[in-house]
TrEMBL record, chain A:
Keyword set includes Cell membrane: yes
Keywords, sorted A to Z: Cell inner membrane, Cell membrane, Membrane, Transport
Protein name per the record: ABC transporter substrate-binding protein
Pfam families in the cross-refs: NMT1_2
Cellular compartment(s): Endomembrane system
Taxonomic path: Bacteria, Pseudomonadati, Pseudomonadota, Alphaproteobacteria, Caulobacterales
PANTHER family, sorted: ALIPHATIC SULFONATES-BINDING PROTEIN-RELATED, BLL4572 PROTEIN
Entry superkingdom: Bacteria
UniProtKB/TrEMBL annotation, chain B:
Stored Gene3D superfamilies: 3.40.50.2300, Winged helix-like DNA-binding domain superfamily/Winged helix DNA-binding domain
Source taxonomy: Bacteria, Pseudomonadati, Pseudomonadota, Alphaproteobacteria, Caulobacterales
ANTAR domain span: 120-181
SUPFAM superfamilies hit by this protein: CheY-like
Pfam families linked: ANTAR
Domain of life: Bacteria
Ranges of residues in domain Response regulatory: 2-114
InterPro entries listed in its UniProt record: ANTAR, CheY-like_superfamily, Sig_transdc_resp-reg_antiterm, Sig_transdc_resp-reg_receiver, WH-like_DNA-bd_sf
Protein name in UniProt: ANTAR domain-containing protein
Listed PROSITE patterns: ANTAR (PS50921), RESPONSE_REGULATORY (PS50110)
Length: 388, 192
C-alpha cells in the first residue's frame, strides 16, 4: 500500500453521523484517495476503546467523552495506556432534545397549564409533579441520558436545575443507549430522556412521547458531536487526517444544503446507517441540526470550556483541574483550519478563520457563558456539585 | 466467584459460559441484556460484556455513579498486564470487575472469553465457507446442465469445458459457472 491508506471509522446510529456517512457514500473520501470503511458501533464506550487501541482510526464521538480524560475525569479510559483523544472537527450543532412520556406531559399540564405554554418550556411544571409525587410517597421519576459525559446529560441537568429540580436527588438519572430509549419509554421503565436525533422524533411518531425542549431552544448553536482520533494517530498520519477532514467538510456542506435533504434522509434511513423511518429523520434535519453553516465544523474552544464547566458543576471533574489546558489539548481548531484552507469555496472564511468568535448565544434562562470565567460560571449555579 | 456474561448473541454467550464453568469454582450467569436489578440481585464479581452490546454504556455509568454513591462495578484496568485490555478490545470483549478484586483472578476469565469469541468467529467463518462451497457446487451443476443441453456435451465433457474456462481465465470454477448462467439468462431475456 502506498500513499494514503485504508481508514476504518466508527459511528453510532444517530442523525449526526451524517458527515461520515455522506463522505463515504458520495465518494468524497475516495476523491481524497482514502478507502474508508465505516463500522456501526453499539456503544460510546466501545467507540472510545476501539479508537484508543487503534481498532478504529477515528470516530463519531460525544465531545465531552473526548474531553473527560484530558480533564482528569474519573470515568476515564479503560486502558491505562490512555492515549489522548483529540477533536479536530465538530460534526454538528444542536440535534438533541428532552422528551417525556405522554402520561408525564399530561401530568405536567394538569399541574401547571400556564407554564406548559411557555416557549421554550421550563421544567417548573415538572417540579410541581415531582413535589406532588414526593408528597404521595411515589417513586422518583426516571430520566435517561446517553452517557455520563454527553451534551445530553448536561442539557437535561441544566434544564431541570433551572426549575429547582436537583437531578441527583429529585429524579433518578440512568444511562440508556439511544436506540433503546423509545422501547424503554414504551415499557414504562423511564419517564423521559434527553437523546440525539432521530430518537425524539421516533418517540413522537410512535405516539409515546412529547418533545419539551430541543437543543436549539436550550442553546441556539450549542455544540454536540465531534470527530475524534488519538493524538498519536493524528501525529503519524497528518495527510490522512487532513484528507478525511476535507472529505467530511464537503459532506457537511452537502448535508446542510436543503436541495440534498431528501437524499440525505434516504441515505441515513438505510438499515446499515441509522435505520429508522424517513419521517423521523426529517424532523431534526428540517430546523434543528446544523452540520456546516456558521462555521459549525470548527471545534470551538468556548464550547469545550462550557462542557468542562459542566463537568466541574456536576462533580465529574475537580474544580482544581486546568480546564484551559484540557480544552486546548483536545479541541484542535488548528487542524480543522489546515484542512479547511485547501477544501475550496465551501468554507466561509469569515466563520472559520477569524479568531474572535461570534458571541455565543445565551443558554436557556441562564447567563451568557463567558469562556474566560469557566470555573466561576461552574460554581455560580444554585444547584451543583462543584468540588475543590 | 460470580461472573455475569452479557452478550446479545445467545449462542456465543452459552459458549463463553460453558468455557468459564470449566476453569474455576465459579457461578456463571448469562443474559442477552444487562438488567440493573438482576445484576444487583446476582452481585457479580466480574461482568464480561460483548463490545457489540449497547448496554456497555449503562454499565459504564455505574462506575461514574460510584463517586457519590458507592456501586459495585468498576472498569477492568490491569496495569500488570500491558496489552491485555487492548487484546480484549480487539477481540470484542470488555470486562468490568468489582473494586478490590485481584487482577490475576480475572485474567483466566478474560482469556476464556476471548478464546470463545475467537472460536465463534472461526465457526461463523467456516459456516459461511461451507455455505459458499455448497452454493458454488449447485451453480456448477446448473452450468453443467446448461452446457449439456446447449452444446450437446455429456456430463464429463461439460465439466471439462468449465474447468478449462476457469483455468484460462484464472478464476474459480464456481465463478465461471455463475458468469455462464448469468449470461445465459441475459441471452434468454431474463435481465436487461
Amino acid at each position: 500500500m502506498s500513499g494514503l491508506a485504508d481508514l476504518k471509522l466508527g459511528f453510532i446510529p444517530l442523525t449526526d453521523c451524517a458527515p461520515l456517512v455522506a463522505a463515504k457514500s458520495l465518494g468524497f473520501f475516495a476523491e481524497e484517495g482514502l478507502d474508508v470503511s465505516l463500522s456501526r458501533e453499539a456503544s460510546w464506550a466501545t467507540i472510545r476503546d476501539k479508537v484508543a487501541v487503534g481498532a478504529l482510526d477515528g470516530a463519531h464521538m460525544l465531545a465531552p467523552m473526548a474531553l473527560a480524560a484530558a480533564a482528569g475525569a474519573t470515568g476515564g479510559l479503560t486502558l491505562d495506556v490512555g492515549p489522548s483523544l483529540i477533536a479536530p472537527m465538530a460534526l454538528n450543532r444542536n440535534g438533541s432534545a428532552v422528551t417525556v412520556s405522554i402520561a408525564l406531559a399530561e401530568a405536567m399540564r394538569a399541574a401547571d397549564p400556564e407554564v406548559m405554554t411557555e416557549q421554550p418550556v421550563s421544567a417548573r411544571a415538572l417540579a410541581r409533579v415531582i413535589a406532588e409525587r414526593a408528597g404521595q410517597g411515589a417513586a422518583p421519576l426516571t430520566f435517561a441520558v446517553v452517557f455520563p459525559y454527553s451534551m445530553h446529560n448536561y442539557e437535561l441537568r441544566y434544564w431541570l436545575a433551572q426549575a429547582g429540580i436537583d437531578p441527583d436527588r429529585d429524579v433518578r438519572l440512568v444511562v440508556t443507549p439511544p436506540p433503546r430509549m423509545v422501547e424503554q419509554l414504551r415499557a414504562g421503565d423511564i419517564d423521559g430522556f434527553c437523546v440525539g436525533a432521530p430518537w425524539n422524533a421516533v418517540a413522537v411518531l410512535e405516539g409515546l412521547g412529547e418533545v419539551l425542549i430541543s437543543a436549539s431552544a436550550f442553546w441556539p448553536g450549542g455544540p454536540d458531536k465531534v470527530f475524534g482520533v488519538t493524538e498519536a494517530w493524528a501525529h503519524h498520519y497528518p495527510d490522512e487526517l487532513r484528507a478525511a477532514l476535507r472529505a467530511m467538510i464537503r459532506a457537511s456542506a452537502w448535508a446542510d444544503d436543503p436541495a440534498n435533504r431528501q437524499d440525505l434522509i434516504d441515505l441515513l434511513a438505510r438499515p446499515e446507517h441509522v435505520g429508522v423511518a424517513p419521517e423521523a429523520l426529517a424532523r431534526a434535519l428540517n430546523d434543528e441540526i446544523v452540520f456546516h453553516r456558521d462555521g459549525a465544523g470548527l471545534p470551538r474552544r468556548e464550547h469545550a470550556l462550557w462542557f468542562l464547566s459542566q463537568m466541574v458543576r456536576w462533580g465529574q471533574v475537580s474544580a482544581d483541574a486546568d480546564l484551559e489546558a484540557a480544552a486546548d489539548a483536545v479541541y484542535r481548531p488548528d487542524m480543522f483550519r489546515a484542512a479547511a484552507l485547501t477544501v475550496g469555496p465551501v468554507v466561509d472564511p469569515a466563520q472559520v478563520f477569524v479568531d474572535a468568535p461570534p458571541q455565543l448565544a445565551p443558554l436557556f434562562e441562564g447567563p451568557r457563558f463567558d469562556s474566560s470565567l469557566a470555573k466561576r460560571y461552574a460554581a455560580g449555579f444554585s444547584i451543583g456539585r462543584a468540588r475543590a | 466467584m460470580r461472573v455475569l456474561v452479557i452478550d446479545p448473541d445467545p449462542a456465543r454467550a452459552a459458549l463463553v459460559a460453558e468455557g468459564l464453568a470449566g476453569v474455576h469454582p465459579l457461578e456463571v450467569r448469562r443474559s442477552e441484556r444487562f438488567d440493573e436489578r438482576e445484576a444487583i440481585e446476582f452481585a457479580p464479581d466480574v461482568v464480561v460484556i460483548a463490545a457489540e452490546s449497547p448496554d456497555r454504556d449503562t454499565l459504564e455509568s455505574l462506575r461514574e455513579a460510584s463517586q457519590a454513591n458507592p456501586r459495585p462495578v468498576v472498569m477492568f484496568v490491569d496495569r500488570s498486564e500491558p496489552g491485555l485490555a487492548e487484546q480484549a478490545v480487539r477481540a470484542g470483549v470488555a470486562a468490568y470487575v468489582v473494586d478490590g478484586l485481584a487482577p490475576a483472578r480475572v485474567r483466566p476469565i478474560l482469556d476464556v472469553a476471548m478464546s470463545r469469541f475467537a472460536l465463534t468467529q472461526q465457526l461463523r467463518g467456516d459456516l459461511a465457507k461451507v455455505k459458499a462451497d455448497l452454493e458454488s457446487r449447485k451453480t456448477v451443476e446448473r452450468a453443467k446442465g446448461l452446457l449439456m443441453k446447449e452444446r450437446g456435451l455429456d456430463e464429463d465433457g461439460a465439466y471439462r469445458l468449465l474447468r478449462k474456462l476457469a483455468m484460462d481465465r484464472g478464476k474459480p470454477i464456481g465463478a465461471i459457472a455463475a458468469d455462464l448462467l448469468a449470461f445465459a439468462g441475459v441471452l434468454k431475456g431474463d435481465a436487461s
